[in-house]
Sequence to fold (331 residues):
Amino acid sequence: MDKQLIYGDIGGTKTILQIATLREAAVHVQFTYHYNSNAYTTFSDLLRDFLDRSEIKLSTSASITACFAIAGPVVGQKIKMTNLPWQIDSTEIKSEFSMSSVQLLNDFEAAALAIEILSPEDLTTLQTGQVHAQEMCVILGAGTGMGVAWLTWQGDRYVPLSTEAGHMDFAPTGKLQIKLLEALQNKFDHVSIERVLSGPGLTNIFNFLQTELAAVSNLARKNLNEDSGATITALALTHHHPIALKSLELFTEIYGAYAGNLALAGLCRNGVYIAGGIAPKIINILNTGRFIQAFRDKGRFSAMMHEIPVHVITNPEVNLLGARQEAQRIA
Fold:
């Protein structure tokens, strides 16, 4: 008997939902819809609209297995979203829509689950390394914030472990990064890695360098919004703005060092995967060698760091794929 799956990637700005039929272990996508999350008061309102558009009747939804990847920490299958006034409870969704099962995942848990089904076209490899099957992996990504999840082998499959490692301390290397830390300490009570590795973090770096390089730069100072990562990237890659370029270089070095720290913490000998919205846009900068040099620069463990595969995920729907993977497993 065919089963129906509903899964989605729920973000503070955009949401994408998809419905599919599971037939003989194969998933057949039937309907996809993209939403502006802010247009809906609750997630239930958005989901009801999706069911109406897909012509799924609530009276027949008992056969549906649902899984949703959500930006934020999921605790007890409940989440209060950071950038939306939404509170989502899997038990309430299951009851309200009479579904057979509803699972909530942190968005990076979902991305981690998708790793096994990504194709070579979904990846750009920064370091080939040596694959060690069933060893730990880590997935991290800078976007609006910094997300991190582990992927560990348990029994006969990989299981994702969500984290809040984006709020670990920023550990600077070199004199310029130390000055950056000191500048940010004057602004924030605690300087987490997310304060430098994110869209707002890239803005913090740019603003710091504008001040730091003022004596040697004849450029007019740019006053940017808190999250101007896309603007800075465009300034660097399209207009070759020297401070924007320097910002991306410093961002890349910090990114590589942090990825290396996570690889050491989990002994991730089966791979490090870089996700998030920023990395695919600056892939040429990441490929210059700055990222991998910082990744490998771990003193007595530098030789081992050469052996760890490092990839950038370029598929923008990786969270959706992970939610689909989990819905299929549950069903």
Summary: Residues 160 and 287 are 28 Å apart (CA to CA).
